[in-house]
Design goal:
By secondary structure, the protein is α/β, with parallel strands linked by helices. Helix content is 40%, strand content 14%. The protein contains 19 helices and 12 strands. Helix 10 runs parallel beside helix 16 (382-395), helix 11 (280-296) runs antiparallel to helix 12 (309-319) and helix 12 (309-319) packs across helix 14 (342-352). It starts with 29 loop residues before the first helix and ends in a 9-residue tail after the last strand.
Length: 509
Amino acid sequence: MRLTPALAATTLLLTACGTSTSTPTGDPMTPFHAQTPDWTPCPSPSAPPGFLCTTIKVPLDHSAPDGDSLGLFVTRRPATDPASRIGALFVNPGGPGSPAAPYAYGAPETFSPEVAARYDLVAVDPRGVGGSNPLPPCLDQKAMDAYTAIDTTPDDAVEADRLRASARAFAEACGRNKKAGRLLPHTGTLDVARDMDIVRRVLGEEKLHYFGLSYGTLIGQVYAEQFPAAVGRMVLDSNVDPALPLGSLLAQQSASIESAFTRYLTSCSSRPTCTLPRKPADAWKKIDRLLSDLDAQPVPALPGRTLTESDARLAAMAVTYAPSVWPMFDGALAQALRGDGAQLQMLADATNGRRPDGSYSADASPAHLAINCADHTEFRTPEQFAAAAQEARKEAPHFGPANVNSSLPCAFWPAPASAKAHSITAPDTPTLLVIGNTDDQATPVQWSRAVAARLADARLVTNDASGHGAYHRKAGPCLIRAVDAHLLSGTAPKSPTTTCPAPSVKARP
């Protein structure tokens, strides 16, 4: 789970590779476009029957295609109704830094049966992620433990200096890794969009049909800007606004997280598992007191470890993504208030990608930072982060500074950025479908509204629902009809903006 699901705003200091599906003779891209995939059974035991996998090469540096290359991990499940096949539907779940393959493996359960049957389902793990030359950890286990425990809400100059030193050490460690150092300058969203177009050509697809979630919407927007003639049917779910610099993105996201946690507190009276005061204002005071006490003195937690203020704050931020775990968080919070931080620490560990044996999973890869840092030339100094943290504190006093400071290593990142915040209009594309929940703590609905208003040809469908990710099998008939009509027939809503009512709890058949 990422607390910064999509924090890259993009634009483009480089030019596109082109939008034609044909390749001129002598073009240095010809060897990449002319590849023949070697499809084999997928190596992951989680891959369902019918999925095949391959590796497709792309240039390390798209501006120098004669140089080094990378191998991208690609998975594909052919349409199960080949007679009615529409094409290949590329899917990406966001992150940034999340692999796409697992999302494709679950796509038959995410998408309507007819959509899953009439499309080849295709996922490309972005460069540096998953099976596509994954970036290695920057720190060893002990150093990573220290890094995740650092106080992200400094109270004085000494703590602020300590936080900056930690962020600098992390960034410099990433730069010292030879494998990471080679890739870090080439991890931006523009690189990912260009990679996706190479895969499209290799698969022989005239058009790129696409469903992107969260940061995946940014990939889709950049692709539409760079390759408008190749855009097919595109759905952008829970959008990232590419016009916002990183600091503004983090501040606005923090306000949504704060609002979501307030809803958790408001709902407390409906759960017998919750022991907090029934009035949200009183509950906030108790939360504040716990965080203040942990800041002064961490409490015992898992064997040999203590629960810090940062651990507890991170666990609280994480549960805003999943109301289904609120009863479990109730118990963890009550335990911490009694001086036992074990359960809250387990939640923080899960968010950080720390396994029970102390090792860190692939989710702890620096890929999400590498992508965010690459996409923001305009936001790369410690002073900018300090100002953004203070700004975020105004709307999100409990979570704003910590959320902003989670990306502080970008201020010391060892690779230059390649893009900056930019308004993407993407003229000359077919109609794009932009969707989002009205109550989304990770990508606030105003981002989806801004994206739809800015795109040259788009329709916006908002869903009166909570959670990150609007389209799924329980999303409600209004939103499902809109997305399915777009993917199956290319039909977009007539109105520029549609608001769907709150879905019922009953799943669709």
